[in-house]
Amino acid sequence: MLRTRTSLSTWSQERSMKWLVLLGLVAFSECIVKIPLTKMRTMRNTLSEKNMLNNFVKEHAYRQCQISSRGSNITIHPLRNIMELVYVGNITIGTPPQEFQVIFDTGLSDLWVPSLFCTSPTCSTQVMFRHLECSTFRPKQKTFSIAYGSRSMKAFLVYDTIRIGDLVSTDQPFGLSMEHSGFEGMPFDGVLGLSYPNISFIGGIPIFDNLKNQGAISEPVFAFYLSKSKPEGSVVMFGGVDKSYYQGTLNWVPLIQVGKWRVRMDRISMKRQVIACSGGCKALVDTGTSLILDPRRLINNIQKLIGATPWGFEHYVSCFAVNILPSIIFTINGIKYPVPARAYILKDPRGHCHTTFKEHTVSTSTETWILGDVFLRLHFSVFDRGNDRVGPAQAVYMLGVAQESVRPPLTHTHSHLGHSCPRCW
Fold first, then answer.
1. Which of 99-103, 300-304, 361-365 has the lowest mean pLDDT?
2. Range(s) for CATH 2.40.70.10 in the chain?
3. Which of 9, 30, 196, 417 has the fewest CB atoms lying closer than 10 Å?
4. Is the pLDDT of residue 411 over 50?
């Protein structure tokens, strides 16, 4: 789910597919729809970094085009990395279709994009939905608000046709934002939630449920593969699982309760010593969060163990530490998921290295971790709505297998950029 802080890199504060392969989904890979995600770096709110982002976009213009495998319904949109950490993909809204770049967020349930009525300065840099040009547009006299930590968004409820690649959801409820607060300089237009209906702020049927109810997908599952260094390669796939994205088997983990993509975690360890979650805890698998989040006390303990020094909103370490620091092991349902130092330490635009562990400000009665993109880049993840479970597996690049070697080449040319992830600050 989108969560934000003062720093873009802490934007991930609250809030993730081999689906039913045993039932033969792999055999029906022609029913899988793959949506490419664009990987983008969360930009801190400094003038120099905003200028860096603008210059980067101008110098690396491209056009996104859809690529489908011959003889199948698999749809792949090219992915783009704009300086690290945020993943976005293209959808269209309305008739005729208008294109938007959104975050596919397992921590939220609703879809929203900016409207022409938006009065916030942020909206002037985003693609805004032109409702008067749409023959399928239907308004509703209802407004709602969503808070992302220190950021917020107010919107009114409308209905229209939404397309995700070859998937079409008709009469889909979504929000058109009227006000934004705290979203300046973010390279995205809106957010598409993939969580359960019970946490919807709109109170309507989420797009995934509509796709399922309207028969657009054959199985109620979706999955994420997030590239870890290249701008291209990431996808979200609907209705089945492509086994070429992961190695071994999917390790199915039941949800703690239906309604959120939250599972029970056994422990967190380093060098065979438990360093957090000692008596078991909860973990939210969240594609809308860029980092790994937990309450301040436990995060501070981990920062000390890896020798990180606080400075501003970050904790920094020597860049040489990447080669000597141990992996941090997340054990879920008896399976160990290692996160090596090269994954939990990132280099900023100035060449300084900081950790990807951050505190989240959400008050919970039990220890709850948020496993964002830092974790998900290493582990291909399936979200099974039919059986209310998550299935992580080792992503193929962990074995040195280049993703580009297992799928058709992608062509790059030009598209709109310049909006960013709602929760990665």
1. 361-365
2. 74-217, 244-395
3. 30
4. no
Active site residues: 105, 286
Q: What is the rounded distance in angstroms from the CA atom of residue 404 to the CA atom of residue 26?
A: 20
Q: How far from chain centre, in Å, is Cα 320?
A: 29
Superfamily, domain 74-217 = Acid Proteases (2.40.70.10)
Which class would CATH give 244-395? mainly beta
Q: Please check the confidence at residue 99 and state whether its pLDDT lies above 70.
A: yes
Pairing of strands 167-181, 111-114: parallel
Provide the sign of the torsion angle of the four alpha carbons 311, 314, 319, 323, taken in this order. positive
CA–CA dist 28, 32 (Å, integer): 8
C-alpha dihedral sign at 44, 114, 149, 282: negative
Query: What is the 3 state secondary structure string of the chain?
Result: CCCCCCCHHHCCCCCCCCCCHHHCCHHHHHHCEEEECEEECCCCCCHHHHHHHHHHHHHCCCECCCEECCCCCCEECCCCCECCCEEEEEEEECCCCEEEEEEEECCCCCEEEEECCCCCHHHHHCCCECHHHCCCCEEEEEEEEEEECCEEEEEEEEEEEEEECCEEEEEEEEEEEEEEECCCCCCCCEEEECCCHHHCCCCCCCHHHHHHHCCCCCCCEEEEECCCCCCCCCEEEECCCCHHHEECCCCCEECCCCCCCEEEECEEEECCEEEECCCCEEEEECCCCCCEEECHHHHHHHHHHCCCEEECCEEEECHHHHHCCCCEEEEECCEEEEECHHHHEEECCCCCEEECEEECCCCCCCCEEEECHHHHCCEEEEEECCCCEEEEEEEHHHHCCCHHHHCCCCCCCECCCCCCCCCCC
Distance (Å, rounded) from C-alpha 318 to C-alpha 322?
8
Region of poorest pLDDT, from 15-29, 216-230, 288-302, 350-364: 15-29
- pLDDT-wise least confident of 15-24, 121-130, 310-319: 15-24
